[in-house]
Specification:
Blueprint (H helix, E strand, L loop, with lengths): L1 E3 L2 E5 H15 L2 E6 L12 H13 L3 E6 L7 H12 L3 E4 L7 E4 L3 E5 L8 E5 L2 H17 L1 E2 H23 L4 H8 L3 H15 L4 H10 L4
Parallel strand pairs: 3-4, 4-5
Antiparallel strand pairs: 1-2, 2-8, 3-6, 5-9, 6-7, 7-8
Helix pairs in contact: 2-3, 3-5, 5-7, 6-7, 7-8
Length: 219
C-alpha cells in the first residue's frame, strides 16, 4: 500500500478486497464500471454466491448499478452471471463506449483500476470529494448512454454463439473466405461478425482481439 495525499494505491485484487471489501457490504449505493467481469477479479471468484449477496443487499434498500462493455457477454457463463445478479436486484447496462473502470461507494469513495501489468493491477482509492464527484459524473454519463442488459443481450445472442469458433479460426490464421465457408456464412456476414467481435472486445486489430480473448479465457 502507498499513500499520496488523499489517494491510496493498493497492489492487486487481494489487497484491494482486504482493505476495502468491507465497504461494499455496508454501502447504501454502489456503482461499478468495468470492461468485463475480470477487472475486479476477487469479485468473480464467488459467482454462485453473488446473486444471493446482491439480493440480500437489495432487500435492505441498497442501490447497485453496473455498466460493462459488450465483451462481458461473450462468455456464456459471464452472461448468465450478469442475468442472475440483475434478477437479484442490481441494475445492469452495457455500453459500447470506452469506460473508466471504477467502483464508487456512496459517492464518497472511488476506486480506479490501473492497467494490467505482468498479470497484476494496481488500484487507486480516492476520497477527495471533488475528485470523487468528477468520477461520479463520468459514471453517470456512461450510465445514461448505456443500454439495459436485457435489450442488449437479446441482440448479442447470435454473435455469442459463433464467437468461440470465429476466434479459433482467427487464431489459426484462416483466410476470410475459408472461415466463412467453415461457418456456413457469406463472406460479408463473416466479416461483419468479425468486426462486431472486435468491437465487443475493444480491439483495434484481429491480433489484439485474439490477445484480449485469451485474457478472458475465450480461447
Amino acid at each position: 500500500m502507498e499513500r499520496t495525499g488523499d489517494v491510496v494505491v493498493l497492489r492487486g485484487e487481494r489487497e484491494l478486497f482486504q482493505r476495502a471489501g468491507h465497504l461494499l457490504t455496508t454501502a447504501d449505493e454502489v456503482c461499478c464500471a468495468a470492461n468485463d467481469l475480470f477487472t475486479w477479479a476477487a469479485g468473480h471468484t464467488r459467482w454462485p454466491d453473488a446473486a444471493a449477496e446482491v439480493a440480500s443487499q437489495h432487500a435492505r434498500g441498497r442501490r447497485i448499478r453496473k455498466v460493462y462493455r459488450p465483451g462481458a457477454l461473450l462468455d456464456p457463463s459471464s452472461a448468465q452471471h450478469l442475468r442472475q445478479i440483475e434478477r437479484a436486484g442490481a441494475r445492469i447496462r452495457i455500453t459500447q463506449d470506452e469506460l473508466n473502470e471504477t467502483i464508487i461507494i456512496d459517492r464518497r469513495l472511488a476506486v480506479l483500476a490501473g492497467d494490467l501489468v505482468d498479470g497484476a493491477r494496481s488500484y487507486s482509492v480516492i476520497t477527495r470529494p471533488e475528485v470523487v464527484q468528477g468520477v461520479t459524473s463520468l459514471f453517470e454519463a456512461a450510465w445514461r448512454a448505456a443500454t439495459d442488459l436485457a435489450g442488449y443481450d437479446a441482440r448479442f445472442a447470435e454473435l455469442r454463439a459463433v464467437a468461440p469458433r470465429i476466434l479459433e479460426l482467427l487464431a489459426a490464421g484462416c483466410k476470410d473466405e475459408a472461415a466463412a465457408r467453415t461457418l456456413g456464412l457469406g463472406l460479408r456476414t463473416y466479416r461483419r461478425r468479425v468486426a462486431e467481435l472486435m468491437d465487443a472486445l475493444g480491439a483495434e486489430s484481429r491480433f489484439q482481439a485474439g490477445a484480449r480473448a485469451r485474457e478472458l479465457g475465450l480461447i
